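From the pipeline queue, job 12 of 40. The input is one protein chain; the requested action is below.

Action: predict structure.
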Amino acid sequence: MSACVVPPPTMTAPLDGIRVLEVANWLAAPAGCALLADFGADVIKVEPPAGDPYRGYRGVVAPFNYFFELDNRGKRAITLDLDNPAARDVLYRLLPDTDVFVTNLLPGRRERYGLTYEVLAKHRPDLVFVSVTGYGSEGPDRDRPGYDYAAYWARSGIMGMMGEPDDAPPAQRPGMGDHTTAMLVAGSTAMALLHRGRTGEVQQVDVSLHNTGLWVLGIDVQAALSNKTDIPRVSRRSVPNPLWNTYETKDGRWIMCVMLVADAYWPPFCHALEREDLQHDPRFADFAARGQNNEALIAILDEVFRSRTLEEWRPRLDAEGLIWAPAQTLLEAINDPQAQARKPFATLDHPTHGPIQLIDTPAKFSRSQVGVRGPAPELGQHTEEVLLAAGYDWEQIAELRTGGVI
């Protein structure tokens, strides 16, 4: 019987040969297009002459904008002043070679700029049109602007469900909703391309930060939808299952315990804590009893967990096969051996900043070349290259530049 020989990877990317035209700024749509570039698509980023405002964002890191690099890596960039009607003609001329058009312009602006699906499809009938907005392309708030802090985090209900009941709800971290939505942008675009390839049919894909938030909060939303009632915030001091809760350690670190099937884990949990007396306490005998006496048990567990440091708890919890994780700092998360084993970061040589590391594509493929393909482009870096490929000559390009079109 001969051995099974696995053929080597093809080293091609899933979206090789696909061209994406991105007319978008800030985060969710560009981050989705960055993933499409990671998957092999040729992404052309269209910016106004002043550039995507995200280029000017520095946050806590200066003077180099790593954030823009993260969400625009591997693309090409051109400038077009879409307030100039002549610029729209240039964009239309790029469409015959374009498979996907991605925009986060609000519906009213799309109509004003002549960038609706109906208009663009005249230039490329099998174009996949992807819109990414705060609230979607229909409804009373179709033209309401909304960053992820507003549309994804606050208005979806996520913010209102977070934190202690008597405290102000917390704000999300930067880009959480955008990057979550970006994965939906990339996946939905790939599905639309797959559908086009199978049926020849094309369609619009409408993605919103708000809908993404509802999906992320799906368990709570489904419960409210089914029961027709709001779900209150629950304090960690009174959660129904004390084995599914957070606890502070002696050194001020936090542990997340996640024993959903609590009865099976209750004996080893008590053994890890060296509190077998709790296992035999009738107040905590089973899931129902612990639920009835949850506040008393949590108060005891708070005291127990504060008796040892995180590093002291780590081997004890692991020895019993418990499901838990420490609340890690960012540097701990980056250097986590499990994270490093997955190779989550890519190193590339930036033309002005030297070697830099970026978060790589979170999905791993066994037979495809997927990942960061290069740095983010400079503003307008590829304008001439793209226009020449579209059939413009140097004299025409000079006229476009003189006219303020590019």
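Job complete. The chain has two domains: 19-217+344-402, 237-332.
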